[in-house]
Amino acid sequence: WNTTSLSVVVVGASGDLAKKKIFPALFALYYEGLLPPDFSIFGFARSKMTDAEFRDMIAGSLTCRVSAKDKCIEATEKFLKRCFYSPGQYDDAKSFSELNQRMGEVERGSGKPRSNRMFFLSIPPNVFIAAAGGAADYCSTKTGWTRVIVEKPFGRDSASSAALGRGLAAHLKEEQIYRIDHYLGKELIENLTVLRFSNLVFEPLWSRQYIRNVQVIFSENFGTEGRGGYFDQYGIMRDVIQNHLVQILALFAMEQPVSLNAEDIRNEKVKVLRCMRPVKLEDTVLGQYRSRVHGGRTLPGYLDDKTVPEGSLTPTFAACAMFINNARWDGVPFLLKAGKALHTRRAEIRVQFRHVPGSLYKHKFGPDLDNSTNELVIRIQPKESIYLKINNKVPGLGLRLDTTKLDLQYGNAYNAKELPDAYERLLLDVVNGDKRLFIRNDELEAAWDLFTPVLHESESRRVTPELYPYGSRGPVGAHYLAAKYGVRWGDLA
Ligand code: BG6
C-alpha cells in the first residue's frame, strides 16, 4: 500500500443495504486501521446529491463499536472527508465515464502512482449486467486490480443464473468477481470448519454412523414490511434457503479440504452439493404468514403489505428435507427451514446424534428416548453460542438422569458483546483478494440445480402455501415433514 491507493465504489449508494451495512462496515474497517491509508469511497446512484449531502446521508449510520465518544466523532469526520458522490444511471456509459474521471482526480490527489478499485453492486437485478459493464469497461484501473462484488439475487433459477453469469463474464474475469453471501461472513459460520476439523471429539463423529439428522434453521420475527416488492418476486426459498442455508449445509457436510486455500475449500463445497439430490416437492412445505391480533394490536399478514401483489402465493416460509448421496451421509436427513414473521429471530444448526447402543439407562428416559440423545447446537445469531446437550446424573442420593448443556456462550467466554458484522470480514477479504468466503460460479450452479425443479413445479402448479399466524411457530406441515423422516425439530422441542 506504500505506492497504491484504494477506491471503493458503492453502486446503489442510496439503497437500504448500502446505508445499513456497507458504509458502516467500511467505517468499522477504517476505524480499526484495516483499510489502506490512502482510501476513498465513492457513492454512485441515480439520485442527485452533492458530496456534502452524501456525507450527511451516511453519517447517521456510522457507529463505533468499542470506543470513547470523542475518538469516534473524530474518526467519523476524517472518514467522511474521504467520501465522494457521483450521480448517474446504471446503464449509462457517460455516467460511468464521469465517475471514472472523479475517481482519477481523487486518486491523483493521494500522490500514489498506482490505484486499486473495488465496486460493490448493491442494485436491482435488472441493471446488474449494465452496471457491471459500466464499472468494468469505463472504470477499470490501469495500474492495479479492479474487483467487483455482486450480491444476490443471482437469478431466479438455473437458466437465469447462467444467463447472469454469461453477462458478467462478458465484462469481467472470474477472478475479478466476488459473489457475496453474507452468511459466510458470520463468526459462527467461519468457526464451523474450525469446530469440526480441529476437535477430535467432533471430527470422528461427523457422519451417518453417529448423526441421526442435521437441521439448519432460520427464523425472523418480522415480516417483509415494505420489502414486499422485492420479496414477492423471489420468496423465501430463493431469498434465504438456496443461498444462506445451503452454504451452511455445504460447509457443514463437505469433506476435509486439502488446505485452507479458497480453491480447495470451494472444491469440497461443490463436490458435496453435487452429491445431493434436487429437492422434491413432496419433501417441501410452503407457508405464508397471515394477520393476527396480538395484545390488542393487529399484526399484518403478508398480503396486507401494500407492496405485495394481491392474492400472491409467494411463500414466506419453507421447510425441506435434503439428502446427500455419499458414503459419509447416505440416509441422513438434512432438514432446512426458514421463515419470516415467526415467533423469534434466530439462526442455528442443530445436530442430533444417534442413541447410545445398548444403553444402561434406556429405562430412565421412558418412551421418549429421543429426548435423551445428544444434540449439538451452533447458534449463529443472536447471542452466538455453541452448546452440547448431554445426559447427566442429577446430583443427590437417587439415580435420576437429566439432559443438561455444556454451554459456550460467546458473550461470556470472549467478552464479545458485539462481534464484527459479516460485511466487515467480507469487504476486508475483497481488499486482500481472499476468496475463501465467496461463491464460485460452479457452486452457484450446483446450488440452483438443487432448487430449480421444485421452484418450477410449485410455481407451475400454483401450490397454495399453508397459512400461519404472524408470530407463530410456522405451519403445522413442517412437523409432518420432519416426522416423515423420524425427526423432531430441535428448536420446537
Ligand atoms: C438477506 C435476505 O439475504 O438476509 C433477507 O434477503 C433477510 O430477507 C436477511 O432478512 C437476513 O440476514 P441477517 O444477517 O439479518 O440474518
UniProtKB/TrEMBL annotation:
Domain of life: Eukaryota
Metabolic or biological pathway: Carbohydrate degradation; pentose phosphate pathway; D-ribulose 5-phosphate from D-glucose 6-phosphate (oxidative stage): step 1/3
Domain Glucose-6-phosphate dehydrogenase C-terminal: residue ranges: 194-489
EC number(s) reported in the record: 1.1.1.49
Glucose-6-phosphate dehydrogenase NAD-binding domain ranges (all copies): 9-191
Reactions listed under catalytic activity: D-glucose 6-phosphate + NADP(+) = 6-phospho-D-glucono-1,5-lactone + NADPH + H(+)
Keyword Hydrolase: no
GO molecular function, one term: NADP binding
Keyword set, alphabetical order: Carbohydrate metabolism, Glucose metabolism, NADP, Oxidoreductase
GO process annotations (BP): glucose metabolic process; pentose-phosphate shunt, oxidative branch
Sequence similarity: Belongs to the glucose-6-phosphate dehydrogenase family.
Function description: Catalyzes the rate-limiting step of the oxidative pentose-phosphate pathway, which represents a route for the dissimilation of carbohydrates besides glycolysis.
Stated name of the protein: Glucose-6-phosphate 1-dehydrogenase
Range within the parent protein: 106 to 598 of 604
